[in-house]
Specification:
Length: 378
């Protein structure tokens, strides 16, 4: 395990608020950063990951990217439904999920946390099935402590707080992490859940991925607060801002929040400042609303080359391992996608498990689509 040494804060500077739309590539002052964009360590900082964890983090980030690419291609070929890529947010997702214990702690996703759910045991084939519209894709194996994808913004946050609190009442020291975006943080559900978490000291990490956009609505239109983390004050919990493209900083901040939760000190709000390096989802065209210069600037902060450079200079990685990994991940993504395609959903499934006794209009629709006498279903 990595040491529990105190994390190093980025040198204080007068940074911009987390809500400014332009020049977002500068971090707000006080944001936690360990690995600079060029992959070198910030002077005076300690590496919070063991060598094995650093390689593991990079592998999961690379896997997330490989799956995104496969899924994107398949969506364009009409073989997969609309989905939201993680691209650009790999460090934010993987660094945080790495700080929790697999099989013990709970992961509650929004819809952009592919790496986290895979790391905590969700089979990749299930993930593909879900986005292919197969109703069995939402099934999560009993031993996997991951909750289903939540599209209704912020609706997962009260559930996560209840889950965290309930497990504590049962006498466990389990922790729950719940992911949501800057857009979701404007929903009433977020504020009610955060308030309740503070009151009952729920062992939960409210992990806010601030990627600057809620589809085409910029962060500045979500809240007039200077930073989203500052809202924590009103709920009686610490608010931490972290460079979300630095997997080490994200890990360190989440590790400290997990330690607090296990000690019975309650929730933490983490604002992870990151960038969406692409469209909101496969139905979106971000070039119509994201400033081209800003987009270029955020590409320079891509978390993958940053960690790649670090691993190279630490002697933990080389070009041969990189090309072997790329090959391995391409095959892994392809195999899982093909296995999911073999389970392609049948059109009649949309009529199943909805009503015990289907109303006549539903029967008419089913018969139009599938022919006479399709009901009763199995
Ligand atoms: C309650 C609700 N309102 C609106 C939507 C439509 N919608 C889907 S994603 C999205 C943007 C969410 O932005 P954010 O929370 O920042 O997450 P991100 O997509 O940036 O990861 C919106 C408005 C929804 N799914 N649920
Ligand atoms: Mg967002």
């Amino acid at each position: 395990m990595a040491s529990e040494s105190p994390t190093i804060l980025r040198e204080a500077s007068e940074g911009p608020p987390s809500g400014s739309d332009r020049n977002r590539t500068d971090l707000p002052s006080g944001a936690l950063q360990i690995l600079r964009p060029d992959g070198t360590l910030l002077p005076g900082s300690e590496v919070p990951l063991t060598d094995a964890q650093a390689v593991e983090a990079y592998r999961w980030m690379s896997m997330s990217k490989a799956v995104d690419e496969r899924a994107f291609t398949m969506q364009r070929q009409g073989r997969l439904g609309t989905f939201s890529p993680t691209r650009g947010q790999e460090a934010s997702v993987v660094g945080s999920a790495l700080a929790l214990t697999v099989g013990k702690d709970w992961v509650v996703p929004q819809y952009r946390e592919l790496g986290a759910v895979l790391m905590h045991g969700l089979p990749l084939e299930q993930w593909f099935c879900y986005w292919m519209g197969n109703m069995t894709g939402g099934w999560i194996p009993e031993s996997v402590r991951v909750l289903p994808v939540q599209i209704a913004l912020a609706a997962q946050i009260p559930h996560a707080v209840g889950l965290a609190w309930g497990r504590r009442l049962l006498g466990t020291d389990e922790t729950t992490i719940v992911y949501f975006g800057d857009g979701a943080s404007s929903e009433g559900d977020f504020h009610e859940a955060a308030n309740f978490a503070g009151v009952v000291d729920a062992p939960v990490i409210l992990f806010l991925q601030n990627n600057g956009w809620a589809i085409s609505t910029p962060r500045s239109r979500q809240s007039a607060a200077k930073t989203l983390a500052s809202r924590a004050e009103g709920y009686g919990m610490p608010g931490v801002i972290v460079d979300g493209n630095d997997v080490m900083a994200v890990y360190a901040a989440t590790r400290d929040a997990v330690a607090r939760a296990r000690r019975g000190e309650g929730p933490t709000l983490i604002e992870s400042m990151t960038y969406r390096l692409g469209p909101h989802n496969t139905a979106d065209d971000h070039t119509r609303y994201v400033d081209a210069d800003d987009f270029e600037a955020s590409k320079a902060l891509d978390p993958l080359p940053r960690m790649y450079s670090y691993l190279l200079s630490a002697g933990l990685w080389d070009e041969r391992r990189e090309s072997e990994l790329a090959e391995e991940l391409t095959k892994l993504a392809q195999d899982a996608a093909e296995a999911a395609e073999k389970r392609r959903p049948q059109a009649r499934q949309v009529f199943d498990h909805v009503y015990a006794t289907p109303p006549s209009r539903l029967i008419r629709q089913a018969e139009n689509l599938l022919g006479p006498n399709v009901f009763p279903t199995s």
